[in-house]
Amino acid sequence: MNAQPGGPSSPPQQSDPLTVSHSVIVEMVRVAALEVPGVLKVGRGGPLAVLSGSPVRAHVSDGRVSVRVWIVARPGHALRPLAAQVRQAVGATVERLLGLELGEVTVVVDGVGGRGK
User: Fold this and answer.
1) Mean per-residue pLDDT, 91-102
2) The pLDDT of residue 52
3) Which residue has the higher pLDDT, 44 or 89?
4) Does 48 map to a domain?
5) Residue-wise over 1-32: b if at least 16 C-beta within 10 A, else e?
6) Domain containing residue 73
7) Where are the alpha helices (DSSP H) in the chain?
8) 41 and 72 Cβ atoms separated by less than 8 Å
9) Does a structural domain hold residue 46?
10) What is the model's pLDDT at position 1?
């Protein structure tokens, strides 16, 4: 994180620019998704999961953050409402906790239960 320089006696101003690193965005998205009941893990659930790269992708364009997150659901949870809850949690994290403008959030349910316990 970078903030505009100010002396030790000057309090931070609301208009001070803030830079959030890509890794912070990715980690906050991962944590937000994991906090949703019904999410077993943030990751891919198929047999090639290890080869598929990061389960959270974030892209910043024109000041807006777009996110794609892969999850594995717990058995017994309806997938459409679960994906909507993850989308809402991730969006709230990007906007409120990170202070960034939200572009879009895509949730990919890539498995149910079993793996990743």
Assistant:
1) 92
2) 73
3) 89
4) yes
5) eeeeeeeeeeeeeeeeeeebeeeebbebbbeb
6) 19-112
7) 22-34, 79-92
8) yes
9) yes
10) 35
Sign of the torsion formed by the C-alpha atoms of 20, 104, 52 and 43:
positive
As a whole number, mean pLDDT of residues 80-106 equals 95
Report the CATH number that the domain containing residue 32 is assigned in CATH.
3.30.70.1350
Question: Which tokens sit at 75?
Answer: 């058995």
- Rg, C-alpha atoms of the chain: 17
Cα–Cα distances in angstroms (integers) from residue 30 to residues 10, 59, 66, 86, 112, in the given order: 34, 15, 14, 10, 17
Question: Among all chains, which residue has been given the structure tokens 């906007």?
Answer: 95
Inside any domain, residue 11 = no
Mean pLDDT across 86-93: 96
For the question of whether the overall pTM of this predicted structure is more than 0.85, the answer is: no
Going through 6-114 in order, the beta strands assigned E by DSSP cover 18-19, 39-42, 56-61, 64-73, 101-112
Indicate the number of domains in the chain: 1
Domain presence at residue 29? yes
Joined tokens for residue 50? 């290890």
